[in-house]
Specification:
- The protein is of the alpha+beta class.
- It has two domains: 137 residues, Nucleic acid-binding proteins (OB fold (Dihydrolipoamide Acetyltransferase, E2P)), CATH 2.40.50.140; 259 residues, 2-Layer Sandwich (BirA Bifunctional Protein, domain 2).
- The protein contains 16 helices and 18 strands.
- It has an eight-stranded mixed β-sheet, with helices on both faces. Strands 1-2-3-5-4 form a five-stranded mixed beta barrel. The protein has a three-stranded antiparallel β-sheet with strand order 7-9-8, with no helix packed on it.
- A hairpin with a 4-residue loop joins strand 2 and strand 3.
- Helix 7 packs across helix 8 and helix 14 packs antiparallel against helix 15.
- It is elongated.
C-alpha cells in the first residue's frame, strides 16, 4: 500500500490532535445536544437591541464548524457554520476558564465545536452568542480551501461535494431546495388523490423507454437483469389492478453519455391516471410545475439561459409537424412516401439509419430544426408511431400518436401519452421494436408478454406522464449543469 504523504499543515493538525488526546479529550467527540440554529437565532433575535437581549438572557446550545477566528489576548471572536448558515461567537477566557480557553487557542479553521451561551448584540449590530461553555467535538485533519477561491476546479467540486457544501453557499442552497421541490410535487399529487408507490429497480425485460440499459447478473437465478430505464410498465400494471391514480419518484439508469443535461443515473416522476388522456396530462404537468415554482420561489417568473420565462399555467401547445413546418416549410402531415421523406432528409443533412421509418425522419427534423429554438414552456404533441411504442394512435391519422413532450429553453422536461391499452396493438408494437433491434437499434424495447397479458385483463383509458426531476430542479434553481443539482454526479476517473 502506498504510504500517505501529509502537508506541513496536516502534520501540525495531527500534532494538535495528539495534544487533545494527551489532555484526555476525544479529538472526534461525543454527542452534543443542539437547541438552536444560526438562522433561527438571527430571525428571532436579530432585530432586538443589546439591552433587550441582555434582559431576555436567551440561552442556546449551538454546534458547527469554525470558519473564521481572530484572537486578541484573552478574547476570541469566531464564526461557526451550521446547517443554516453562520453565526458569530464571542469567547472570553475569564468566562469559560483557562483550560477551555487553551483548547480555543489551539482550535483550527474547519474544527467542529459545540457551545452554550447567551444571545447578544455587538456594538456593530451583529447578532452573536456570548459563550459560557466550549466543547471540542471534531478535529479537522485537513485544512479547508482558501476562503475566497474555494474549490476552483469545477470537477473537484463535484468529486468532493462535502467540501463544496462547506465552502459554497449556493451548493448548499440547491441541496436544500431540491427536496422542497420534490415535496411540493408530492403535496400536489397527494391533494389530487394520487397514491405514491414503489416498483422494482431490477427488471428481467427491457421496456418502458428507448434507451441503452445497464445490465447486471443475479447469481442465484443465474439470470441477467436490467437496471430500470423507466417505471412505466410496472405502474400501468397497477392501473390494471384498479389503483386508479399512482405515481413514483425514483432513480432510473441509462447506459448513455454524460453532459450538462444527462447523468447515467437520474431521478424522474411517472404519473398514471385511469380515465384520463393527453389533455389531462397536460393540465397535470402544468399544475405540478407551476405549483412547484410558486411554492419554492414564490413566483411563476424566472430567468433561465438568458431568457425571461413564465411558468404560469397556460403553456403553449403545438403539434410536432406544425412546428417543423414553421421552421422548414416542410409539411409532414401530408401523405408522402418513405422514399420522398428520405430524400428530404438527405437534402437537409440528416443521416437515415437502417432501422428508420417515416416517423424517425420526422423526429430527426424536429430535433435538428425545432427543439433548441423553443423557449417558452411548450407542449409538442403528435409524435410518430415509430418512436412511440406505448402511446395510443391518433384516431384521425394512425401514423401519429397521442403523445406530448414538454420543452422549455430548448430542453425536454416531460413526456406523456394517452396510454396504449389495446393488447393486440401493443403486441404488434413490441414485435416492431424487435425488428428494429435486429436492424441495429440498441435502444428498442423487448417483448414483454406479461405486460401484454396484463392489458388483456383490461387497462382503462389512461393518461400517463414522466418528468425529469433533475432538470426541473435545474430550472427552478437557475442551474445549467445537471451536476450542480445531483449531490454525487457520475464523474470520469481522474486519469481519463
Amino acid at each position: 500500500m502506498e504510504e500517505r504523504k501529509f502537508s506541513e499543515q496536516e502534520l501540525v493538525r495531527r500534532e494538535k490532535m495528539q495534544e487533545l488526546i494527551d489532555k484526555g479529550i476525544d479529538p472526534f467527540g461525543q454527542r452534543f445536544d443542539v437547541t438552536a440554529y444560526s438562522k433561527g437565532i438571527k430571525e428571532q433575535y436579530g432585530e432586538k437591541t443589546h439591552e433587550e437581549l441582555e434582559e431576555m438572557a436567551v440561552e442556546v446550545s449551538v454546534a458547527g464548524r469554525i470558519m473564521t477566528k481572530r484572537r486578541k489576548g484573552k478574547v476570541c471572536f469566531m464564526h461557526i457554520q451550521d446547517r443554516d448558515g453562520q453565526i458569530q461567537l464571542y469567547v472570553r477566557k475569564d468566562t469559560i476558564g483557562e483550560e477551555a480557553y487553551e483548547i480555543v487557542k489551539k482550535g483550527d479553521i474547519g474544527d467542529i465545536i459545540g457551545i452554550k451561551g447567551t444571545v447578544f448584540m455587538t456594538n456593530t449590530g451583529e447578532c452573536s452568542i456570548k459563550v459560557s461553555e466550549y466543547t471540542h467535538l471534531t478535529k479537522a485533519l485537513r485544512p479547508l480551501p482558501e476562503k475566497f477561491h474555494g474549490l476552483s476546479d469545477i470537477e473537484e467540486r463535484y468529486r468532493r461535494r462535502y467540501v463544496d457544501l462547506i465552502m459554497n453557499e449556493d451548493a448548499k442552497k440547491i441541496a436544500f431546495t431540491r427536496p422542497r421541490i420534490i415535496r411540493s410535487i408530492q403535496h400536489y399529487l397527494d391533494s389530487k388523490n394520487y397514491v405514491e408507490v414503489e416498483t422494482p429497480v431490477l427488471n428481467p425485460i427491457l421496456g418502458g423507454a428507448a434507451a441503452r440499459p445497464f445490465v447486471t447478473h443475479h447469481n442465484t437465478l443465474d439470470t441477467d437483469f436490467y437496471l430500470r430505464i423507466a417505471t412505466e410498465l410496472s405502474l400501468k400494471r397497477l392501473i390494471v389492478g384498479g389503483m386508479d391514480a399512482v405515481y413514483e419518484i425514483g432513480r432510473l439508469f441509462r447506459n448513455e453519455g454524460m453532459d450538462r443535461t444527462h447523468n447515467p443515473e437520474f431521478t424522474t416522476i411517472e404519473v398514471y391516471k385511469a380515465f384520463s388522456d393527453l389533455e389531462g396530462m397536460m393540465d397535470l404537468t402544468e399544475g405540478i410545475i407551476s405549483n412547484a415554482a410558486m411554492e419554492v420561489n414564490g413566483t411563476y417568473e424566472l430567468d433561465y439561459k438568458g431568457h425571461h420565462i413564465s411558468l404560469a399555467p397556460g403553456f403553449k401547445r403545438v403539434s410536432m409537424t406544425e412546428a417543423i413546418k414553421e421552421k422548414t416549410g416542410i409539411d409532414f402531415n401530408e401523405h408522402m412516401s418513405f422514399e420522398d421523406a428520405k430524400k428530404l432528409a438527405e437534402e437537409h443533412g440528416i443521416e437515415v439509419e437502417a432501422h428508420f421509418g417515416y416517423g424517425h425522419i420526422i423526429n430527426e427534423f424536429f430535433e435538428k430544426y425545432v427543439e433548441e429554438t423553443i423557449v417558452e414552456p411548450t407542449f409538442v404533441y403528435g409524435h410518430p408511431i415509430e418512436i412511440s411504442p406505448l402511446a395510443k394512435k391518433n384516431l384521425e391519422d394512425p401514423r401519429f400518436t397521442q403523445r406530448f413532450e414538454l420543452f422549455i429553453c430548448g430542453n425536454e422536461y416531460a413526456n406523456a401519452f394517452t396510454e396504449l391499452n389495446d393488447p393486440i396493438d401493443q403486441y404488434e408494437r413490441f414485435a416492431d421494436q424487435l425488428k428494429e433491434k435486429e436492424l441495429g437499434n440498441d435502444e428498442a424495447n423487448e417483448m414483454d408478454l406479461d405486460y401484454v397479458e396484463a392489458l388483456e385483463y383490461g387497462l382503462p383509458p389512461t393518461g400517463g406522464m414522466g418528468m425529469g426531476i433533475d432538470r426541473l430542479v435545474m430550472l427552478l434553481t437557475g442551474q445549467e449543469s445537471i451536476q450542480e443539482v445531483i449531490l454525487f454526479p457520475q464523474m470520469k476517473p481522474r486519469n481519463k
